[in-house]
Every structure is written in C-alpha cells, then in structure tokens.
Write a structure and sequence with these properties.
By secondary structure, this protein is α/β, with parallel strands linked by helices. It is about 45% helix and about 20% strand. Helix 1 (about 5-15) packs across helix 3 and helix 1 (about 5-15) crosses helix 4. InterPro entries: LysR_HTH_N, LysR_subst-bd, WH-like_DNA-bd_sf, WH_DNA-bd_sf.
C-alpha cells in the first residue's frame, strides 16, 4: 500500500463516506473512489462494503487499520522532520504528554524554558499513552510525560512524582460539607470515572477491594478533563486525577480523596534514541515543574 493509498484508506475509515473523505483530503470524489478501487485490486481483497450510502469496513480493513494508523503517524512525523530541516529549525524540542500533565506541568516547564532559550522552537502534542510510545519510537517526540510507568522495554520511564485522586462534586451537593471524601462515601453515588484497563482505573479497583468497597461508575471517561461538563450537568461525582487545577472551573466543588491510591507521573524517553542538548534542558525543566506543582498540591490545606 503506497502512501497516497494509505492516506485515502485512513480518511475513509475515519469519515465513513466517500464525500466526507474526499473533503478531508481536498480531492474529488471520483479521484478518491479510483484510488480506493486500485488499492483493493492490488491488495486482492475488499476493504469496504456499501451499506445505505455509507462505507462499512470489512473485517480485513478493521484488522489492518491500527497498523495503517501507525504507519501514517510515522509518515507525518517524517514530513515534519524534513520540513524542520529545510527551514533550518535545528533547535527543536518535541514533547508528547497525556492531557493532565500537558495542562498542568508543561505550561510551567515551557515558560521557564522559553525565558532562557527564546529561539528554540517548541512543539507540544497531547495524546494517549499508546500514541506517546509510538511517537517516541519514531522520533516524532523526544520526551513524553504520562501518568503510568508500566511501559515496553524500549521506553525509559523515570518516575518524577506521584499524584492521588480528587472528587469533583456538582455545586451544592450534600457531600460538599465534608472537607475530604473516602471511597466509602462514593459507593452509593452516581460515579463518573475512568474506564477499565487504564492505570487510574486499576489503582482505584485495587484500593476499593482492599477497603471492602464496591465502585461501579455509571459514566466512564478516558480523559479526566472530559468529566467537567458531566459534573456541571449534575450527572454525578467525578473521581479523577488530582493533578489538574480543578478549582479554576466554575460549577464544581473539589474535595481530595482520603486514604486513596496514588499513581506515578513519569518522564518518558526512548532507549534507542539520543537526546539533543535542547531535549536535555527541557527534561530538566519538566522535572522541576513537576516537583514544584506536586509540592504545591501537598501544601494545600
């Protein structure tokens, strides 16, 4: 599958129709359909079935789609790197982070770094941990920050701190009278929290079992920041990481989770790729920002 064919396949998988995919790629519908037909001819199997005006992926398409996305990300990274070299951006630092550290740690680290190195280009990516790992492997990011240290052997994870959980209550909730909450307090509440097979969900499940509490979220999320709107709408209490500055959002009451688990904040690098001097300086700023922010959290009453 050539690069253009890969691009068309991914666009159709994401868009669901030829019209929308052609619009995404800024090409005509006939041109896109022709590329898709040639791709299927070369592969020797169908990628899509037409059902009620939409293209439904075949099992074969679903099987190859994750690999196609990874290849596409690698090609995108290669294009960005060649552009950077062509434009003479020799001072470039790329950092990929999961949303909580991207919002809480990177702004402080980038501010300090920029004050000392104003001519170095900074590039930030907010992504889930699987994408961060892929970006470190391809070189599309030099540094990663995530809230997990359970990573493949080729990724170095330096734990630079740990963070607990916070409870986000709708304004006026009865539990707002308490200065802190426990898992037992939340057992009978409508709960908004992480879906399974994530580090936060695993840590909460272990703590709940140890305390003899049954936690069963009625609304599962993949990113903690997405809980805000649900809490503001009165859909329940959110049990999320305590790293984000939740107090700055209106319509919420924030309470720490007492006797709750903690999970790591990790600085990630590839074991197979050397860091530039600029990368190393940014790594130092990320460490310092994390230490400072977590110290401020612990100092709060």
């Amino acid at each position: 599958m050539r690069a253009r064919q890969l691009e068309v396949f991914i666009a159709v998988m994401r868009a669901g129709t030829v019209t929308a995919a052609a619009r995404m790629l800024n090409i005509s519908q006939p041109a896109l359909s022709q590329i898709l037909l040639h791709t299927e001819d070369e592969l020797g199997f169908a990628l899509f079935e037409r059902v009620k005006g939409r293209l439904r992926p075949t099992p074969d398409a679903l099987e190859i789609f994750p690999d196609a996305e990874r290849l596409s990300a690698g090609l995108d990274g290669l294009r960005r790197k060649t552009t950077d070299l062509r434009l003479g951006r020799t001072g470039l630092v790329r950092v990929a982070a999961s949303p909580p550290p991207a919002m809480a740690i990177l702004p402080r680290a980038f501010t300090k770094f920029r004050a000392q190195h104003p001519n170095i280009l900074l590039r930030s990516h907010s992504a889930p941990i699987a994408t961060i790992v892929d970006m470190l492997r391809t070189g599309d990011a030099s540094l990663g920050v995530a809230m997990d240290d359970r990573l493949p052997p080729d990724i170095e994870a330096e734990v630079i701190g740990s963070v607990g959980f916070a409870c986000l209550l709708p304004a006026g909730h009865a539990l707002q009278r308490k200065t802190e909450l426990t898992l037992a307090d939340l057992a009978r509440e409508e709960l908004i929290s992480y879906h399974g097979n994530t580090r936060p969900a695993d840590e909460l499940a272990l703590a709940a079992r140890a305390q003899g509490v049954k936690l069963s979220p009625s609304l599962e999320i993949d990113v903690s920041i997405s809980a805000i709107g649900f809490v503001q709408a009165g859909l329940g209490i959110a049990l999320v990481d305590a790293l984000l500055p939740w107090q700055q959002f209106a319509g919420l009451a924030v309470r720490p989770l007492a006797a709750g688990p903690e999970f790591p904040v990790a600085l990630l690098t590839s074991r197979t790729r050397a860091l530039s001097r600029a990368d190393e300086m940014m790594r130092d700023e990320i460490r310092a920002a994390c230490y400072a922010i977590l110290g401020e959290h612990r100092a709060r009453p």
